[in-house]
Amino acid sequence: MADLSMGDAVGIAFRTGAGSALGLGHLSRCLALAHALRTLGAESRMLIDGDHRTLELAMAAGFEASAVARADDPEATLEWCGRLGASALVVDSYGFTTDDLAVFVAAGRPVAVFDDTANRELPVDLVINGGAGARALPYRGGPRTRYLLGPSYLALRPEFAEAAPRTIHDNVQRALVTIGGADPGRLVAPLMRWAIAGLGAITLDVVAGPLVDDVASVRAAVGAVAGQVVLHESPKHLRDLMLAVDLAITGGGQTVYELAATGTPMVAIGLAANQTPNVDAMRAAGALAYAGDVHDAALGPGLVATLAALAADPWRRADMSRRGRALVDGRGAPRVARALLDLIGRRR
């Protein structure tokens, strides 16, 4: 059996998932936290419920990764943590029950959980929810549970903490379509058509994330659309692309916070129920416009109308940009990393 031990260094084990159905958000925030931990001298390993693409993404980010042998089996995760000699476990998966989490805690090492919904009791040491609506959720933890809630604790990639100038043009000249790392509902093609209908003759940048299953169909859709449409397949520098556009159309997941950090005015679409509290809170804060849920029959006309209204209102776009940056400073990952290492230090 291979020696997986992280030696004498503080080592953090991450148990998460990613894929074409689940998306990339869970893995992305784990990697962001792992980067922040590395700057503070701690190393991390990933145990991922996903295919070879998700392992490759983690390794490309500079972290060793293993595939889950038995999904949602707490004993298998504990065995892996033991082989690593992990100082703490970070869980970002909806697959584990309250009882499973209690098993992790009983093993003796600190346990942190990324959560979005507060739909189960979380008897762990640290609960992390960087969502804009996190503080309103009815969390239930244990007697020693600490909560890191709200956008101050958003785990975003390091580049999103870097301030950059943002120009708001009177007219929308360039727009971005991105719904995250995957496209399980095959939304990219209709979103392109609706974007052109709402915004007219502009340059449209379309992102196909690294977990999109049928990139060929996205390429075909781009080729079939009239106008200036540029396809970006698994772009390495998404932040630069966000800063280059005047407006974005996006799903309601992790990407809305990256757009907010770059001051990008945006129209969001709800893709899953767990996005609703955060999309609602971001809308209430004036950081995004909402076009509807993916299951809404009138989503297309609603998006077209919302885009047209926002394109015609540069003051609102400028206000949205300011409010987004005020809400998300991009420095949440280092805050979470310090809290986790402080917890480990107090246990030693």
What this model shows, in words?
- The protein has helices at 25-39, 52-60, 74-84, 98-106, 188-199, 215-224, 238-244, 255-261, 276-284, 299-311, 314-327, 332-347, and strands at residues 11-17, 43-49, 64-67, 88-92, 111-114, 126-129, 146-149, 174-178, 203-208, 228-233, 247-251, 266-270, 289-293.
- It is α/β, with parallel strands linked by helices and 348 residues long.
- The strands form two sheets. Strands 3-2-1-4-5-6-7 form a seven-stranded parallel β-sheet, with helices on both faces. The protein has a six-stranded parallel β-sheet with strand order 10-9-8-11-12-13, with helices on both faces.
- Strand 9, helix 6 and strand 10 form a beta-alpha-beta unit.
- Helix 5 crosses helix 10 (299-311).
- It is globular and about 60 Å long.
- The mean pLDDT is 92.
Q: Give me the CATH fold name of the largest domain.
A: Rossmann fold
According to CATH, what is the class of the largest domain? Alpha Beta
Radius of gyration from the alpha-carbon trace, in angstroms: 20 Å
Shape annotation? globular
Distance between the termini: 28 Å
Specify the helix fraction band: 25-40%
- Provide the CATH architecture of the largest domain: 3-Layer(aba) Sandwich
Give, in spatial order, the strands making up the sheet with the most strands: 3-2-1-4-5-6-7
Q: Strand-and-helix sequence, N→C?
A: EHEHEHEHEEEEHEHEHEHEHEHHH
Protein structure class = alpha/beta
Ranges where pLDDT stays below 50 over 5 or more residues in a row are none
Number of domains: 2
Helix count, DSSP H or I runs of 4 or more residues: 12
Strand content: 15-25%
Mean pLDDT: 92
- CATH homologous superfamily title of the largest domain: Glycogen Phosphorylase B
